[in-house]
Automatic annotation (TrEMBL):
The record marks 142 as: Raises pKa of active site His. (6R)-10-formyltetrahydrofolate binds at residues 64, 89-92, 104. Signal peptide: none annotated. HAMAP family: PurN. This is Phosphoribosylglycinamide formyltransferase. Residues 2-179 form the Formyl transferase N-terminal domain. It comes from Microbispora bryophytorum subsp. camponoti. PROSITE patterns: GART. Keywords: Purine biosynthesis, Transferase. N(1)-(5-phospho-beta-D-ribosyl)glycinamide binds at residues 11-13. Coiled coil: none annotated. It catalyses: N(1)-(5-phospho-beta-D-ribosyl)glycinamide + (6R)-10-formyltetrahydrofolate = N(2)-formyl-N(1)-(5-phospho-beta-D-ribosyl)glycinamide + (6S)-5,6,7,8-tetrahydrofolate + H(+). The keyword Transferase applies. It is an enzyme of class 2 (transferase).
Length: 201
């Protein structure tokens, strides 16, 4: 199964997928890594792993829709079975979403705390338990069907960094587990329910 991974930052979730894909038993390989900006560690991780990379910045396009269309074309060049958004900080548009199934990882228990500041928002709210969510991407912001979730405790004295790091430790494992199962066992979507183990990728 061919994965294209989209990143915008450090790429530790990407690294977890690259490490898992080194074992054929994982059932999927990362065939390319795309980003919305240059100079990020996520691209360096791909290069170190010998994986092709590409960058499509929103600012290089006259409209958001043309960026979405161009990004879809760049992704399509690699013929992915599944696109994984792992710390990609842009909302994907109709060209991307009509062309590929996209999985995203989010550092909160959706529908709580959607958006780009989930960890900060959870901490500010004062929750005692937060977590991470792996979900299919739809046209909304972190609103797609949930595939997997895992709770992560908030500890006394946590700041955004310590809490996000604790979440990311769980998130990287959950993403590898979930993407691996989708690749090996297939999956289907019925309404908002994603079922794994149904033979379709
Ligand atoms: C992850 O927690 C992801 O859920 C969020 O940003 C973080 C990206 O981390 N959107 P990394 O780039 O994978 O290290």
């Amino acid at each position: 199964v061919r994965l294209v991974v989209l990143v915008s930052g450090s790429g530790t979730n990407l690294q977890a997928l690259l490490d898992a894909a080194a074992d054929d038993a994982f059932g999927a390989s990362v065939v390319a890594v795309g980003a919305d900006r240059t100079g990020i560690e996520g691209l360096a991780r791909a290069e170190r792993a010998g994986v092709p990379t590409f960058v499509e910045s929103v600012g290089d396009h006259p409209t958001r829709d043309e960026w979405d269309e161009r990004l879809a074309g760049r992704v399509a060049e690699h013929k992915p079975d599944l696109v994984v958004s792992a710390g990609f900080m842009k909302i994907l548009g109709p060209h991307m979403l009509s062309a590929f199934p996209v999985v995203n990882t989010h550092p909160a228990l959706l529908p709580a705390f959607p958006g780009a500041h989930a960890v900060r928002d959870a901490l500010a709210y004062g929750v005692r338990v937060t977590g991470c969510t792996v979900h299919l991407v739809d046209a909304g912001v972190d609103t797609g069907p949930v595939i997997a979730q895992e709770a992560v405790p908030v500890r006394e004295g946590d700041d955004e960094e310590s809490l996000h790091e604790r979440i990311k430790t769980v998130e990287r494992r959950l993403l590898v587990e979930t993407v691996g199962r989708m690749a090996r066992e297939g999956w289907t979507l019925t309404g908002r329910t994603v079922r794994l183990g149904t033979g379709r990728v």
